[in-house]
Amino acid sequence: MDLxxxxxxxxxxxxxxxxxxxxxxxxxxxxxxxxxxxRDTNPWIHIPVGYFKTMHNPAVDWCYRTEPDPxxxxxxxxxxxxxxLGGSSSLNGLLxxxxxxxxxxxxxxxxxxxxxWDDVLPLFKRSEDQERGADEFHGTxxxxxVSNMRIQRPICDAWVAAAQEAGYPFNPDxxxxxxxxxxxxxxxxxxxRRCSAAVAFLKPARNRxxxxxxxxxxxxxxxxxxxxxxGVSYLDKxxxxxxxxxxxxxxxxxxxxxxxxxxxxxxxGPADQLQTNGIxxx
Length: 282
Ligand SMILES: Cc1cc2nc3c(=O)[nH]c(=O)nc-3n(C[C@H](O)[C@H](O)[C@H](O)COP(=O)(O)OP(=O)(O)OC[C@H]3O[C@@H](n4cnc5c(N)ncnc54)[C@H](O)[C@@H]3O)c2cc1C
Known about the structure:
26% of the residues lie in helices and 22% in strands. The chain has nine helices and 13 strands. The strands form four sheets. Strands 10-2-1-13-12-11 form a six-stranded mixed sheet. Strand 1, helix 1 (14-24) and strand 2 (31-34) form a beta-alpha-beta unit. The protein is globular. Flavin-adenine dinucleotide binds at residues 10-16, 34-37, 55, 80-83, 87-89, 91-95, 97, 217-219, 253-256, 258, 262.
């Protein structure tokens, strides 16, 4: 079966779930979201400490390993990445930590209009449902639940006290005015359950008639007509190849490893490396 869509989103991870939600909020947009992994039905995904069961599990993790690294005495190490609805947000450490104000301002200084701290802060607030309530830095009522740690152990309290004795200021909110100091984590959980990007952003949107979510769909290639993207090709679980035509845009949100890989498989990337891998550069 070949399809068409206005927007094709590759990868249903942290970013892809948000993009698919926002684009399909407009009923005029026909959106197809393609995810290489399956649905997030594994119960360990939703239990915060369940990442001990999901990381390194090929059913939900790409199970990458790094090349041997001279800086690690030649060792290679595991490099987990989520392969399931929610992507890495379905198996990550749940810590809600924003970047530094200066990081975003530097992005804007580099020419990225709309990415400065004053631009992103209202969006952080809008997306958030902060257990502590709304203030200058936090929002409530958004799709992404942010909670305090439910368990506070004496050893953690002792560690925080020791850090203060060593001169580090106590910071009750490292996502607030200042990131410096020592304090307790904020977590992307609601009532003790993981609030992944799929739970926060896909679940509320998944019944929209203009959003089609296709799981077990491995995008093999972005299709081009000259230098213009026309759609994507993907492989389903049964080994069948499909093509989808994009009337407007293809959004590549396959994560830090797979997005560049998908570009390279499509002939986009450093010419010498493409040729080494037998791919004809664009
Ligand atoms: C083990 C671990 C712990 C982490 N802990 C934290 C933490 O505590 N706090 C924090 O803020 N961040 C944490 N992170 C980082 C955070 O989870 C990631 O930065 C974030 O999820 C990346 O989002 P993304 O959308 O770029 O990619 P991902 O969420 O990885 O999503 C990419 C999606 O694209 C899919 N995909 C890839 N290739 C294809 C293809 N060819 N066809 C179809 N689909 C494809 C993947 O299967 C995946 O679902 C952690 C990450 C890991 C792996």
